[in-house]
Amino acid sequence: MNTFLTVILDGLIQASWLFIVALGLTLVFGVLKILNIAHGGFYALGAYLAATVVTMAAAHNVPPGLGFVLMLVSVAAIAAVIGLLMERGLIKLFYGRDEVVLLLVTYAVFLIFEDATKLIWGVNPIYANQPYELFGNAEFAGLFYVGYDLMLIPFSAVIGFAVWFALNRTTTGKIVTAVIHNAEMSASMGVKINRVYALAFAFGVMLAALAGGLTAPKISVQPGLSSEIIILSFAIVVIGGLGSIEGAAVGAILVGMARAASVHLLPQAELFMIYLIMAAVLMFRPEGLFRREVARRI
To answer: TM spans, by residue (predicted)?
Structure first.
C-alpha cells in the first residue's frame, strides 16, 4: 500500500512541474504553430537565474520567504523580456517560411543557450536549496515528504486553471483563441496578429523559465538540463495533443506516473515506459488524446 501511495504522490509531484513546461510549449504551438525546440533552453535559463537570485538573496541575509518570491518574480520577468525580444528580433523574420525552417531556427537557439549558460555560469553544478526548506516536511499515510514538493502540485494546478480561464473566459483570451483557430480571418477582423504572436511566445517562454526556477531548489543546476526537459515536454504534448491545455495536463500526469512507477518498480525501463505510452497513444490517436478542433476548409 505504501508503495502505491508513494508512486501516486511522486508521480503527481513530477507531473506538476512537467505540466508547467509543457503548458508553455503547447501554448506556443497552438498560437504560432511552432514546435519550439529552444523551450528546453529557457527552462535551463530559468533554473540558472533562480539559483543566482537565491544565492544572492542568501548572501544578503534576505528571509527565505522573500527570497523565494524574488526568485519567481525575477525569473518570470527576465524570461518574458528575453522571449519577447527573441520573437520580435528573430522568430518574426521567418513567419511564412516552411515549418522545418522554424524548427531549425529554434534548434539553433537551443544550442546557443546551451553554450551561453556554460560561458556565464560555468560547467560545475550550482546548488540553491534554501527555498526547498521553506515549507517544512509533511506526513501522509506514514510517509514523509518535503513540503516544497507537495506545494508544487496545487501551484501548477492554479497556473493551469489561470491559463485556461484567461483563454476561455476573457476577451483577450477569446482573441487569442480566434487566432489559434484562424489567423487569416482574425487579421481580416482587425486583430493585430503580430502582437498576439509576440505575447503568446513571451508567455510560453516565461512558463518554461518559471518551471525551471521552481525545480532549481530540488536539483543541482548543471549543463544538460535543457536536453532532458525538451524530450519529456515533447512527449507530453504529443500524448495530450499539440495545442491542448487539457491534453498537457493529462499527458503530464501520465508521464509523471510512468516515471514514478518505473523508478520504484523497474528503474531500467524509466525512459522506455514514456516512449511506450507515447507510441501507444499515437497508434490509436495520431493527433493526441485531446484533438483540437480545426475548421474544415471548403
So the answer is: 12-35, 42-60, 66-88, 100-123, 143-167, 196-217, 229-258, 265-284
DSSP-assigned beta bridge partners for residue 145: 138
Q: With 0-12 CB in 10 A as exposed, 13-18 as middle and 19+ as buried, what is 59?
A: exposed
pLDDT above 90 (res 64): no
Measured distance CA(37)–CA(3) in Å, rounded: 36
Q: Which domain holds residue 111?
A: 1-284
Residue-wise pLDDT for 125-170, tens only, equals 998 888 898 888 887 767 788 999 999 999 999 999 999 999 888 9
pTM for this entry? 0.92
Does residue 248 form part of some domain? yes
* Residues 253-298 pLDDT 10s: 999 999 888 888 887 777 788 888 888 888 888 888 886 555 544 4
CB neighbour list of residue 221: distance below 8 Å, 6 or more residues apart: 44, 47, 48, 50, 51, 121, 125, 126, 127, 128
- The CATH number for 39's domain is 1.10.3470
CB 268 within 8 A of CB 278: no
Question: What distance in Å separates the CA atoms of residue 17 and residue 172, rounded to the nearest whole number?
Answer: 26
Length of the chain as a residue count? 298
Phi, psi at 3, each rounded to 5° = -65, -40
Q: Tell me, what DSSP letter sits at residue 287?
A: T
Q: Which helix (H) or strand (E) holds 144?
A: strand 143-146
- Point out which residues pair with 138 in neighbouring strands: 145
> Which ranges constitute the DSSP H helices of the chain?
2-32, 39-59, 64-89, 99-121, 147-169, 171-181, 183-188, 193-215, 225-240, 245-265, 270-284
> What sign has the CA pseudo-torsion 56, 40, 168, 183?
positive
